[in-house]
């Protein structure tokens, strides 16, 4: 039966899921930032190669 449905337990579960969502959002943002920096670095390197040659 559903005897463990206390409001406190559901609240703590909600907070835990919210924290997991924040962790996932931060993880995705860091990956996107790394990809953007890598792309810009590649563009800068190709521009430098074009200038040097």
Automatic annotation (TrEMBL):
The keyword Transmembrane helix applies. The chain crosses the membrane at residues 20-44. Pfam families: DUF2474. InterPro entries: DUF2474. Keywords: Membrane, Transmembrane, Transmembrane helix. This is DUF2474 domain-containing protein. It comes from Izhakiella australiensis.
């Amino acid at each position: 039966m559903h005897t463990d449905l206390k409001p406190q337990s559901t609240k703590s579960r909600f907070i835990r899921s919210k924290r997991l969502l924040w962790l996932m959002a931060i993880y995705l943002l860091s990956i996107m930032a790394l990809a953007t920096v890598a792309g810009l670095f590649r563009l800068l390197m190709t521009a430098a190669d074009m200038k040097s040659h």
